[in-house]
Specification:
Blueprint lengths: L5 E2 L13 E2 L5 H8 L7 H4 L6 H4 L5 E13 L14 E6 L7 E9 L2 E10 L9 E5 L9 H12 L1 E15 L3 H12 L3 E3 L6 E7 L4 E7 L6 E7 H8 L3 H8 L8 E8 H4 L7 H4 L2 H12 L5 E3 L2 H6 L2 H6 L2 E3 L23 H18 L6 H14 L3 H11 L8 H4 L7
Antiparallel strand pairs: 1-2, 3-7, 3-8, 4-5, 5-6, 6-7, 8-13, 9-14, 10-11, 11-12, 12-13, 14-15
Length: 418
């Protein structure tokens, strides 16, 4: 009845041979399809590759801290933020912050440079009553001698470090697009497998223009180890962190198509490195060594042929696969050129927007809550102080009316919402 004894069906992203139903002996075309199979599952991704792949994969990297938090204790039991005597230190109390573990937050500005946020008075038993949490400003981590500046500030404030609480190590490179490709292959195609099945790889930030996910998260954000890979060049356009572009230029990276691999480490992992210091964290060779210890065996991608997956157990097929390394580990930088100074002024208007959005979210969760009117007061006051009334009205309309909630009874009086 059939001239061709094979029924072949094609599905985007999966090899034609996977759906082949064979009614006779093996067909050579299946072997050819497996041999020529491209593990990449998106033609749009290939557009970012130049014709000469040796040019893109020169494996030029930069490495730096992108987030640093640590716990401090005061040398004096009578420590108070209102009694800092140094004339070059300005203390700005943050009205609304997003750390639920502490009641108060103070922003420290030293000689006109925003240095850090200090969180005081714990709300739970995760921290002792005498402990403070310090988060270093992001731009400071890209400057020369930032560790010396932080140590001097701690000396002025009469504080000492008790333990490191959280840090992010960021590796930037054009070649990191290969990590994004591996994540995409794992998400859409069985031929890319990972060694750690407990890890969940999740796509984020879908771009309709390129029909691609712009970010992949690896693991759980609530765990002690969490990673993500994304297009940092695109992200900078929205975050405004243009000093990172200067940092790249200083270290020989282009501004376009740079992807970032970022690993977050919590305090349970950091306590395994008791000798770690601020000075160590400013050295790229220490960061490279720490990255390799925590990531190299934690996350391994392998390309596995479909015939292995069909004919063997998953563990055996993975062992026979071809590894797709995250980095050229021996090429991670041992030296980095840091910026001399980052001219960043405190962006209070953006912070006001974040505070209003956070407060609106709390009001939307439970409009009948006893604290609702306090949040409404903060929202209206902040919007008025920073000339954000029109922006606030649009935000209320988006967060409330589009979700079927009438905001007029909640926000009536004082500030217009229509």
């Amino acid at each position: 009845m059939f001239n061709n004894p094979y029924i072949n069906t094609f599905s985007s992203g999966i090899s034609e041979s996977f759906f082949s139903i064979n009614y006779a002996s093996s067909f050579p075309r299946i072997k050819t399809a497996l041999k020529n199979q491209n593990p990449s599952t998106s033609n749009a991704l290939n557009k970012t590759y130049p014709k000469n792949k040796r040019e893109i994969f020169s494996y030029k990297y930069t490495i730096a801290l992108d987030w640093l938090q640590f716990v401090c204790v005061p040398n004096d039991e009578r420590f108070s933020m209102e009694q800092i005597p140094h004339p070059d230190v300005i203390i700005d109390k943050v009205i609304m912050h997003h750390n639920p573990n502490f009641y108060y937050c103070y922003r420290i500005i030293y000689k006109g440079i925003e240095m850090c946020d200090i969180y005081m008075y714990p709300t739970n038993e995760n921290y002792k009553a005498s402990e403070l949490l310090i988060k270093i400003s992001n731009h400071l981590l890209y400057t020369q001698d930032w560790s010396d500046q932080v140590e001097y500030l701690l000396h002025l404030l009469s504080l000492k470090i008790a333990r490191f609480n959280h840090l992010d190590i960021a590796v930037d490179s054009v070649s990191n697009i290969k990590i994004c490709e591996s994540c995409r292959g794992y998400f859409r195609n069985r031929t890319i497998q990972i060694n750690n099945e407990a890890l969940m790889i999740t796509p984020k930030d879908f771009k309709k223009k390129t029909l691609m996910w712009n970010m992949y998260t690896i693991g759980s954000k609530s765990s002690e180890k969490f990673a993500r890979v994304y297009n940092k060049s695109q992200e900078i356009k929205y975050s405004g962190k243009e000093y990172i572009l200067d940092f790249w230029h200083l270290n020989g990276l282009e501004k376009e198509n740079v992807y970032r691999f970022e690993i977050s480490l919590g305090w349970k992992i950091l306590k395994m490195y008791p000798s770690l210091s601020l000075k160590d964290l400013s050295k790229p060779e220490i960061l490279s060594e720490l990255l390799e210890k925590e990531v190299r065996k934690w996350l391994i991608f392998k390309y596995v042929k479909l015939e292995f997956l069909r004919n063997h157990r998953k563990e055996h097929a993975f062992n026979k696969g071809t590894e797709r390394p995250l980095f050229k580990w021996n090429r991670l930088p041992k030296q980095i050129n840091y910026l001399t100074k980052v001219p960043v002024a405190p962006r209070k208007r953006n912070e006001a927007k974040r505070s209003i959005t956070f407060s609106l979210g709390k009001v939307r969760e439970d409009p009948a809550c006893s604290t609702t009117m306090d949040y409404v007061k903060v929202i209206k006051t902040t919007a008025g102080d920073f000339d954000l009334v029109d922006w606030m009205n649009v935000k209320i309309d988006y967060m409330f009316r589009k979700n079927g909630i009438d905001p007029i009874p909640i926000f009536s009086g004082g500030t217009s919402i229509t």
